Amino acid sequence: MAKNIIFIFVFFLLSSEVLAQSAPKYSNEFLSIGVGARGLAMSNSQVAHVSDVTSGYWNPAGLLEVKDQYEFTLMHAEYFAGIAKYDYAAFATPVDSMSHLGISIIRFAIDDIPDTRFLYDANGAINYDKIRFFSAADYAFLLTYARRVNLIEGLKLGANFKIVHRKAGDFANAWGFGLDAGAQLKRKNWQFGLMLRDVTGTFNAWTHNTELVIDVYTQTGNEIPENSVEVTLPKAILGVGRYIPVKSKFGILASLDLITTFDGKRNTVVKSDFASIEPALGLEFDYKRIVFLRMGAGNIQEVKDFDESTYKTFQTNFGLGVKIKNITIDYALTDIGDQSESLYSHVFSLKAGLNKK
User: Fold this and answer.
1) How do residues 57-92 score in pLDDT, each as one tens digit?
2) Could you tell me the residue ranges of all domains in the chain?
3) Average pLDDT of 185-213?
4) Which residue in 28, 35, 143 sits closest to 89, CA to CA?
5) CA 222/CA 208 separation, integer angstroms
6) Which of 173, 226, 291, 298 could form a disulfide with 167 if both were Cys (CB 3.0 to 4.6 A apart)?
7) pTM here?
8) Cβ partners under 8 Å of residue 294, min gap 6
9) Cβ neighbours of residue 155 under 8 Å, at least 6 residues apart?
10) Fold of 2-354
């Protein structure tokens, strides 16, 4: 088993370097946003300690900590003053005492986009009744399997098989497939995690319906799109967390994730031609594990201004949570990264556990 884990990690690094030579730097970015108000409030620092149904996204290995027979979660968020809608749903259940199974669905979309190709009639007059509407939507379907192993005491492993579907009205659509792998290990109050996203690269095959746009593109001098394959490069996330009890009723969970990309130099805290590393920090304060206060900082970026000077931006998030028996309600207030009031988003998520009598 140890040799298999080493082989997977080496293969992960080699495939990252090979694919980086021809793949775009950013692909399937909607899968980097995060899910669940708890994770978003803690700035996505979840890999080491996530232990509920949202593990299907953050780290498949954490699915083994689900205690209920069935666990569900729903989330809704809106970005850019409600223009973009972001929805998430997931389900998890144990298969036996050693393994768990989960299913997750993610949708990020902009709906009701005007199609003005037929705005003018044959006489050149504007006819607003001719305006049509379409959606640009990204979907992801994740099938998760997690299992305890006897290699190391407390070691948990998990994997995702994911299907990605992206659609821009009737103009273009893509189907993609990929794999994620994760591991968690707990030592007393310390928790460690590793998440390998898109281990072999996630390949999106794009199909364009050029008949719908060829006339307009030819008149405006735009390049006619062609069918192509887009590759999402591998990414590694190393996480560490520690829970600190405070007296008998209070506790603090501190976590740190190091998000490592292998597609060349990015505007992150640590950057090189081989890899770039972006830290994400989160804190969660609890009272009797019933009421929670959360905060986090991440997405630290170095931005170049118009006068060639540079400055740093970062994303700060806050959140609250309350657990009533087997129902948990979470809220997060997140920002895109420039601390602009117009870009703050309110995120709500609901989690429920069900058990057979």
Assistant:
1) 999 999 999 999 999 999 999 888 788 999 999 999
2) 2-354
3) 89
4) 35
5) 15
6) 173
7) 0.86
8) 38, 41, 42, 282, 283, 284, 285, 317, 318, 319, 320, 321, 332
9) 148, 149, 183, 184, 185
10) Porin (2.40.160)
